Amino acid sequence: MNVPLILNLKKTGIFLFRFFISYLCKKLKKMKIAIGNDHAGTEYKFAIMEELKEMGHEVVNFGTDSTESVDYPDYIHPVAFAVENNEADFGIILCGSGNGAAITANKHQGVRAALCWSRELVELARQHNDANILSLPARFISKYQALEYVKVFLQTPFEGGRHKRRIEKIPLS
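Request: output the structure for the sequence above.
Response:
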């Protein structure tokens, strides 16, 4: 075997080992998940909460339980505060497009909310950006997709390395 191939296999093996350990820790560790939503995300929120509880996680509901029109910042800020203050391991936020929720959450120090509408984006948000809040666009994805993305989000580890250096440059203060 040539040296570059061996080095590449070694790096791949280390990544897979770290991924496996992180995955096991997430599976074994029961997490506290904060969830918030506006009126567009109510139905999905209930499905997500049920799934998270079945997985053994503690869920804190900061969202509206109604489909009557509300202002999303009123329900997203409490999720971001919980994550920012280490009162929750992760957050999940939902609104119609996911944009307003993500913009609101990202005003908080230490919060890295990622708007995701595909599995690949969810994986990259965790692997490269160490996202700690998942923002879902309830009007643009199915309930099945929302549930899948939540599972992927909670089970995907942060890769660290060069990505850690980059996210350390995000805060202004």
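The chain has a mean pLDDT of 90.
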